[in-house]
Amino acid sequence: MSSYRKACAVFVGASLAFIAAVAAAEHPLDSLRAHEYTRATEILRAVGHATDATLYVTIRLDEPAKDDVLAWREGDTIDRVAHVTLRESADLFEARVDLNAGEVLDFEAIDDAQSGILLSEWTLAQEIVKSDPDFQAALAKRGYTPFDPDQFNCLPLSPGYFAEEEFEGKRILRVQCLDLEGTRHHVYQRPIEGLTAVVDLLANEVLQIVDEDVIPTPGISGNYDEESLQPYRDPMNPIAISLPRGPSYTFDGSFVEWGPWRFHMRMDRRRGIVVSLATFDDRSVLYQASLSEMWVPYQDPAYGWFFKSYFDAGEYGFGLFGTELHAGIDCPAHADFYDQTLAVDDGVPYPTSKVMCLFERPTMTPVWRHAEGADGSHAGRAGRELVARMISAIGNYDYVFDFIFKPTGAMTVSIGSTGIDIVKGAKAAHLDDDSAADETRFGALIAPNLVGVYHDHFFSLRFDLDVDGTENHFVRDRIVPRDLADDHVRRSIWAVESTRVRTEAGAQLDIDMRAPEQWRVESTNARNAMGYPTGYALQVSSNALPLLSKDDYPLRRAGFAEHHLWVTPYSPEELFSAGDYPNQSKGGDGLPAWTARNRSIEGTDLVLWYTLGFHHLTAAEDWPVLPTHPKTVTLKPHNFFDRSQVINLAP
Ligand SMILES: [Cu+2]
Q1: Which of 83, 206, 375, 417 could form a disulfide with 132 if both were Cys (CB 3.0 to 4.6 A apart)?
Q2: What's the sign of the alpha-carbon dihedral 348, 335, 185, 315?
Q3: Cα 422 to middle of ligand 1, angstroms
């Protein structure tokens, strides 16, 4: 336990004053407050469900029933229930703790599942590996004598699942180390390639060391803040955006209000920013939106790489690794920044600083305009939008996660991938070197002696849409070619065929440019002025699908990525598209399992699950830092209004 205490101490730091200052929740969807984390652990201890040895995997708000939240009015009592996932050594439990009544509502054992990786296990894995004599001997073979533990950073890599009999039922991590000598900040540039340890986190021992080949450790090429690496260009003149009358939004800690938009915002340890109860002119658009899961599978069969298939939300925590945002770089200088409190392994409140920001920005593009030649007139409005942002740094990658609200009634989710490519050490420094052909079969030489291994990024987004209420249909608007009669001078046109989808199986859909369609949710009863059902459509942009075979474990465990879209009837326990426990999962959990029932999605409360992905073909420009690569999806009104929402913007 000592290592775990040490890890927590680092994160908890100081800030008791901050904890005391946090006010009570003002809305049923507000994040758990610092004192509520503490109270949850105290209640569990009082009834004997927790001890000093308990590890708290997550303590999160157990959201009240949706009907209750929708019916809640200011002044009503606020139910506060914590959903706690906890471990006693290998045993995993889930509890629901009523913080108002001071009682445990449910407590159940979770069989055959592994929790996500805890902060304390990052430290523990390092200690186990560095103190193992065989691992030290493998390092000595590479010239690392005498052994200096401080020279290495060892990564606790989620191990995947491959039905390896020797690891069955064990809680394992695969650990690889990096040489830190000469590195500044960029700790990934000197991989000790070909050396992997499999660690048992419960027995505190190394189970296996796989030593593939001795590859000389690459030199220094990634110290991105050393000007000698690449001399700075002449600075350009500054750009400043000023808000002489302050921002046009307000955020009271629960709700953000900006023009016609109003939404609740909080931080979740696993999902990151959660937007709830989003309305436009008091009409409901969505009940909740957030990241549900992420999956990053690498495409190299070598032992050191085959298992890399990370579920960053469920295995590590997208919110937990939300980083402090810096004004002028991460968010504009005029942004507002917000702290949030999470909880770490020992249940102690973990205050985070400036992990969310809000800002308005000019789009620099007119939101509409028209210049009329007939009378020489010009009219239009400048565009602006509101951004709610967090940036999660999970190991080498940083993900800039934005909710972007627009005056048109549209809302975009943008996820920008940046940070650092994880690299494979290579003998080749140039493509002409003897080993280069072999070493670049599954990646590109992105710097001398460094191969950027090919991989994918898939983000699973959960949109619980409530278009003018909770009773909605899901509609496919197919754009279909039509041949015209032989006597027509035009041979063909296209038309729209709209079909309501009745069950889940009919709503597992992929983007196909040869058979384009719009995916739309419409109200069962509300109509716009022309009589159309009010609706919101998904506006998709470039995307990807996995190319792995269906019997390949990484894909079996990430079934959500098999389709760009899934639609399910709302179910409060369905939050995580690869299942509640993706770490070492065997596959089939989450969306594939839920939708196997083929439930009705007609005239009911709907959840849209959108998978957003890209194949990362690595290249020299990835090194030593990755320029931010954004991927987006937009929810846009489609007959939700009676007319454009931008002509009423004041000039
Ligand atoms: Cu990538």
Answers
A1: 206
A2: positive
A3: 8
What are the pLDDT digits (tens) for 283-292? 999 999 999 9
Task: Give domain status of residue 289, yes or no.
Answer: yes
Listing DSSP states for 233-263 in one string gives PPPPPP-----TT--SEEE-SSEEEETTEEE
Pairing verdict, β 195-200 and 172-179: antiparallel
Domain limits at 57?
2-110
Chain centroid to CA 353: how far?
19
Structure pTM? 0.95
Sorting pLDDT into bands at 50, 70 and 90, what band is 22?
A: low
The CATH number covering residue 325 comes to: 2.70.98.20
pLDDT at 448 over 80: yes
Q: What is the mean pLDDT of residues 332-352?
A: 94
Catalytic residues: 312, 397
Check whether residue 313 and residue 261 sit in a common domain: yes
Ion ligand 1, residue ranges at CB < 5 A = 616
pLDDT of residue 6: 36
The token pair at 580 is 């509640």
DSSP string, 95-164: EEEETTTTEEEEEEEE-S--PPPPHHHHHHHHHHHHT-HHHHHHHHHTT--S--GGGEEEEEE-------
CA 375–ligand 1 middle distance (angstroms):
52
pLDDT in tens, 101-121: 999 999 999 999 999 999 999
Q: Do 155 and 270 share a domain, yes or no?
A: no
Say how far apart CA 176 and CA 198 lie, in whole Å: 9
Distance CA(411)–CA(278), nearest Å, equals 10
Rounded to the nearest angstrom, the distance between the alpha carbon of 565 and the centre of ligand 1 is 22
| CA 625 to centroid of ligand 1, rounded, Å | 11
Residue type for 93, please? F
pLDDT of residue 152: 98
* Number of helices and strands in the chain (H, E): 10, 30
Centroid of ligand 1 to alpha carbon of 316 (angstroms): 17
53 Cα–ligand 1 center, Å:
38
